[in-house]
C-alpha cells in the first residue's frame, strides 16, 4: 500500500485557492503509484475560523464531489482514496469532521465514511465547542487496506479513543490534525512535536496498528501550526516524518502483513480483549454509574 501524507499550508478562508493547491498535490502524486492520500484537519479553509465556520462549512456529499473534481482535473488516472479534514454542515448542525472518499471511479465519487470530532478543545488558544457540536460515535470502516478509523487531533490524545477503535477492528488509524506549535524540546524538535510522536508511537505499538498523521502548517492570526506529519509502524517505530514549518508530501509504503506479525509477537490487543469485561463492568467506573442513572 502506497500512502501519501500531505503537510498542507492553506490560505485562511480561501477555499478556491486551497482546492487548486489540492489539485496541484494530486498532479504531483500521480507521477507514481498511490493508493491513499491524507490531508490535515480543516485543510481547505484553515483552522482558526471561529464564527466563519458557518459560511465555509460543507455538506459531505458536496465536499466529496469537489475532491473528486480536483483528482480528475489533475490528470491522474484510475481511482484513489482520499482523507480530508473539514468543517461540516450536517443538516444545520456544524461539526469538525474528516471525510474518507474514493475518487476517480467510473460511476463517480463514493463517500466511505465521515468521522465527527468527539473531543472539541475549548481552552488556551482553542474555542471549538463555542462554534461546533461534538460527534457522538466512533466507528471503524472497511477500506482496501483493512478496517480503519479516523481520529481528529485531540481525539488522539485520549487513550480510550484509539483503544476503542482497535477493539472494533481498526488496523489503520488516520489522524488529520491542526496542532499549534509549542516550546522547544530536545534534539532541536518542538515540545509539541515530541509529545505527538510519543502518543502516536505508543498507540501504534500497544494496538499493533499503522498510524498515519497529517498536520496542518503555516501561520493563522499569529499562531504557528506544528506540521510534524509522520507515520508509525505496528511495532511503534517511526517510519518517516516531516519538519514543522513547510508544506510537503510524505510518501510511505505500508505492508499490512506487518500488523499480523506485530500482534502475534506482542499480543497486547488480544490480552486487552480478554480482560476488557472485568475492566468495563467495574461498578466503580463513573461511566457505569451514568448508564445506570439513565436507565
Give short descriptive properties of this protein:
single chain; 295 residues; alpha/beta; six-stranded mixed β-sheet; Carbon-nitrogen hydrolase; hydrolase; C-N_Hydrolase; Aliph_Amidase/BUP; C-N_Hydrolase_sf
Output the helix-strand order. Answer: EHEHHEEEHEEHEHEEEEEEHHH
Number of helices: 9
What gap, in angstroms, lies between the N and C termini? 46 Å
Helix content range: 25-40%
For the biggest β-sheet, the strand order reads 5-4-3-2-1-14
Low-confidence stretches: none
Strand content: 25-35%
Largest sheet: 6 strands, mixed
The strand count comes to: 14
Arithmetic mean of pLDDT:
93
Report the C-alpha radius of gyration, rounded: 19 Å
**Global geometry:** globular
Structural class: alpha/beta
Oligomer: single chain
Organism: Vulcanimicrobium alpinum
Keywords: Hydrolase
Pfam family, one: CN_hydrolase
Domain CN hydrolase: 1-256
Plain-language structure description:
By secondary structure, this protein is an alpha/beta fold. The chain contains nine helices and 14 strands. The strands form three sheets. Strands 5-4-3-2-1-14 form a six-stranded mixed sheet. Strands 6-7-8-9-12-13 form a six-stranded mixed sheet, covered by helices on one side. Strands 10-11 form a two-stranded antiparallel ribbon. α1 packs across α3. The radius of gyration is 19 Å and the shape is globular. It starts with a strand and ends with a helix. 42% of the residues are buried. The model has no long low-confidence stretch (mean pLDDT 93).
Amino acid at each position: 500500500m502506497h500512502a501519501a501524507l500531505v503537510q498542507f499550508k492553506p490560505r485562511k478562508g480561501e477555499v478556491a485557492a486551497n482546492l487548486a493547491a489540492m489539485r496541484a498535490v494530486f498532479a504531483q502524486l500521480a507521477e507514481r503509484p498511490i493508493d491513499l492520500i491524507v490531508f490535515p484537519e480543516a485543510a481547505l479553509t484553515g483552522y482558526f475560523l471561529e464564527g466563519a465556520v458557518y459560511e465555509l462549512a460543507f455538506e459531505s456529499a458536496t465536499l466529496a464531489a469537489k475532491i473528486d473534481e480536483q483528482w480528475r482535473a489533475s490528470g491522474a488516472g484510475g481511482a484513489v482514496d482520499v482523507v480530508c479534514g473539514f468543517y461540516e454542515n450536517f443538516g444545520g448542525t456544524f461539526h469538525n469532521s474528516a471525510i474518507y472518499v474514493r475518487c476517480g471511479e467510473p460511476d463517480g465519487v463514493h463517500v466511505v465514511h465521515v468521522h465527527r470530532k468527539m473531543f472539541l478543545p475549548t481552552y488556551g488558544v482553542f474555542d471549538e465547542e463555542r462554534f461546533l457540536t461534538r460527534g457522538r460515535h466512533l466507528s471503524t470502516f472497511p477500506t482496501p487496506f483493512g478496517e480503519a478509523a479516523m481520529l481528529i487531533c485531540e481525539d488522539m490524545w485520549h487513550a480510550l479513543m484509539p483503544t476503542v477503535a482497535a477493539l472494533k477492528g481498526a488496523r489503520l488509524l488516520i489522524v488529520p490534525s491542526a496542532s499549534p506549535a509549542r516550546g522547544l524540546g530536545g534534539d532541536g524538535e518542538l515540545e509539541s512535536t515530541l509529545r505527538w510522536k510519543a502518543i502516536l508511537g505508543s498507540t501504534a505499538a500497544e494496538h499493533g496498528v499503522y498510524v498515519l498523521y497529517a498536520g496542518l502548517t503555516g501561520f493563522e492570526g499569529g499562531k504557528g501550526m506544528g506540521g510534524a506529519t509522520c507515520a508509525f509502524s505496528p511495532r511503534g517505530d517511526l517510519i518517516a516524518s516531516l519538519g514543522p514549518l513547510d508544506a510537503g508530501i510524505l510518501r510511505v509504503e505500508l505492508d499490512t502483513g506487518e500488523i499480523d506479525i506485530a500482534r502475534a509477537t506482542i499480543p497486547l490487543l488480544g490480552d486487552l480483549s480478554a480482560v476488557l469485561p472485568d475492566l468495563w463492568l467495574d461498578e466503580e467506573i463513573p461511566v457505569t454509574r451514568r448508564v445506570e442513572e439513565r436507565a
